[in-house]
Amino acid sequence: MKMKFKSTFRTSPGLNTAIGISLSIIAGLLLVGSLATLLKGRAAGPVVKIPVASCDIEMGSTITAGEISTVEIPERYVVPGTVRDKGKIIGNRTLRFMGKGEPFTETSISSSSTGSLATRIPQGFRAYPLTIEGKRGAEGEIKVGDRVDVIATSIDTSTSKSIAKNRLVISIGGKGKNSSIEEAGILQLTLLVTPQEAELLAQSEVEGRVSVVLCPLNP
Fold first, then answer.
1. Nearest-5° angle of CA 76, CA 81, CA 82?
2. Cα 155 to the chain's mean position, in Å?
3. Using CA atoms, how far apart are residues 131 and 186, in angstroms rounded to an integer?
4. Which domain holds residue 135?
5. Residue 57: which CATH number?
6. CB-neighbour burial class of residue 177 (10 A; exposed 0-12, middle 13-18, buried 19+)
7. 4-44: pLDDT as tens digits
8. Tens of pLDDT along 69-102?
9. Which one, 20, 44, 106, 208, has least CB within 10 Å?
């Protein structure tokens, strides 16, 4: 069998030529692929390191160092608004759910410096401005990223009920920005709510009084 195999190659120059051409084509394709990869990397710019979520992070959670990892990607593919300084991420809270491997952006964490509040509103939600008069106790300690329950009290029936639960605070006004508002004991919150909850909040503010209670942090 071995002698027959050698004989076939010796007596079939056409087969040898075909095999040689095939190997040349394969080598050429591999070379072209390698060059394309190198050129693509150069076209994408230098490689940079950016912080990303090392696990899924729920909306409103305080970001810890253990929830941040670093990846290297070409400069060209960095998402606009990406926060590259890990120190500016730790201790802040997520304004929406973040999936594992997702970069931290200015619009996804509570330290956002963007001028447009609308960029921080997830699909299916609304930003509702709520004015709380005569704040007391924990209401005065509420911070951006906290979660609250909203309770409506009817003037006619003197009954109370929760109309929005565990809702994220995305903006706060009237704290150190306007002395007359502060002295009057008025707290201005902007909450992330559903469209249905926004309707209930608007109705409750007309029919009676609304108040908020601070929720515990997510475990």
1. 70
2. 40
3. 7
4. 121-214
5. 3.90.1210.10
6. exposed
7. 444 444 545 554 455 545 545 554 455 445 445 545 545 55
8. 999 989 888 888 889 999 889 888 787 888 999 9
9. 20
93 touches 110 (CB < 8 A)? yes
Confidence of residue 181 (pLDDT cuts 50, 70, 90): very low
Look up residue 125 and give its two tokens. Answer: 């939600």
- Report the predicted TM-score, pTM, of the whole model to 2 decimal places: 0.53
End-of-domain residue from the set 114, 147, 173: 114
**Rg, Å, the chain Cα set:** 30
Closest CA to 84 of 113, 108, 51, 110: 51
d(CA 93, CA 68): 13
Q: In sequence order, what are the beta bridge partners of 190?
A: 129, 171
Do residue 89 and residue 125 come from a single domain?
no
Mean pLDDT of 134-144: 68
Q: How far apart are alpha carbons 172 and 187 in whole angstroms?
A: 8
Quote the Cα angle for 181-185-186, to 5°.
Answer: 60
